[in-house]
């Protein structure tokens, strides 16, 4: 991202309503199930304000919330299986906060191939992520497998994986690199740069977004400035774009994009294999382009 500046500390923010802050306390599936975090961190109260949170993890799900009531970041790292190698990774996660920088690094833990039995689903082997949301038998063999159930959570090589929960002050940004695991955000992020090799991405609201998703869907609730989304395998949905620039490329998957009345500038949407649906695209004051090499384009 060419401009990843954090919101200035005296600049207007997009805070979440305080009435919503309470439900941010428990984001991770493990937390909701009553599991205690294996690693916790609270930022330095002598250095309050928004932060750029940089997260690096090979196999972990990331949950992030922006909370207007916070002055410093809070990090909690979970693993529902305390005897797994992923629990050890959770305990050894490195967390640092200095000025407007927060860094979280989850160590890589190699695990031997195992068989996972989840309902009628069997996965054996170890390397890709598979999402199974339907009933019936599934037999998948690979290496380093991550299984994501339809109800959320993940099982990695037969173990519950790592979940990282971030609570950030208003005006904060997120930069994450994950090999396997989903990314979820609640509240408004000033900027987000997400590189997800395998796993879905869900952003509730963001100013500037740059997303690279190799395998997994991308959902953004609201873009207030600009967005650049590249999805290799998975659908893309932007519920509302009210910014001045957006570019979406989907190699294999459909795109649904809504242009808000406040939007301006340019919107460029392309799907190689999949349909494109544009809402609010009949605008003479904007440059809006949409193509689908193998699929239909619908303008509404």
Protein architecture, described:
44% of the residues are buried. The chain is globular. With 300 residues, it is mainly beta. Helix content is 4%, strand content 54%. It contains 2 helices and 24 strands. The strands form 3 sheets. The protein has a 17-stranded mixed sheet that branches. A 4-stranded mixed sheet has the order 8-10-11-12, with helices on one face.
Concise synopsis of the structure shown:
4% of the residues lie in helices and 54% in strands. With 300 residues, the protein is mainly beta. The two termini are 30 Å apart.
Task: Pick out the low-confidence regions.
Answer: 8-24, 112-158
Summarize the amount of helix as a percent range.
under 10%
On the 0-100 scale, what is the average pLDDT?
82
Largest sheet: 17 strands, mixed
- Secondary structural class: mainly beta
Q: Hey, roughly how much beta strand do the residues contain?
A: over 45%
N to C succession of SSEs: HEEEHEEEEEEEEEEEEEEEEEEEEE
Total number of strands = 24
What distance separates the N and C termini?
Answer: 30 Å
Radius of gyration: 19 Å
User: Judging from the principal axes of the Cα atoms, what is the shape?
Assistant: globular
Number of helices: 2
């Amino acid at each position: 991202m060419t401009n990843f500046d954090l919101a200035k500390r005296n600049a207007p923010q997009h805070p979440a309503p305080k009435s919503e802050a309470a439900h941010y306390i428990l984001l991770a599936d493990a937390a909701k199930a009553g599991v205690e975090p294996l690693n916790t961190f609270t930022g330095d109260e002598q250095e309050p304000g928004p932060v750029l949170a940089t997260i690096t993890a090979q196999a972990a799900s990331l949950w992030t919330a922006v909370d207007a009531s916070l002055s410093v970041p809070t990090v909690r790292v979970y693993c529902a299986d305390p005897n797994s190698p992923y629990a050890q990774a959770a305990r050894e996660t490195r967390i640092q906060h200095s000025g407007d920088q927060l860094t979280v690094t989850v160590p890589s833990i190699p695990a031997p191939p195992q068989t996972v039995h989840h309902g009628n689903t069997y996965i054996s082997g170890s390397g890709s992520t598979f999402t199974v949301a339907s009933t019936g038998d599934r037999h998948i063999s690979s290496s380093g497998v991550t299984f994501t159930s339809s109800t959320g959570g993940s099982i990695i090589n037969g173990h519950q994986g790592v979940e990282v929960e971030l609570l950030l002050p208003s005006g904060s940004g997120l930069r994450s690199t994950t090999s396997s695991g989903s990314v979820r955000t609640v509240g408004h992020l000033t900027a987000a740069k997400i590189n997800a090799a395998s796993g879905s991405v869900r952003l509730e609201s963001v100013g500037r977004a740059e997303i690279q998703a190799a395998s997994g869907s991308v959902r953004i609730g609201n873009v207030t400035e600009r967005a650049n989304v590249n999805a290799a395998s998975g659908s893309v949905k932007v519920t509302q774009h009210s910014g001045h620039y957006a570019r979406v490329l989907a190699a294999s998957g459909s795109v649904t994009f809504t242009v808000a009345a406040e939007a301006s500038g340019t919107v460029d949407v392309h799907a190689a294999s999949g349909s494109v649906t544009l809402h609010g695209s009949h605008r003479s004051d904007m440059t809006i382009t949409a193509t689908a090499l193998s699929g239909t384009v619908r303008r509404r």
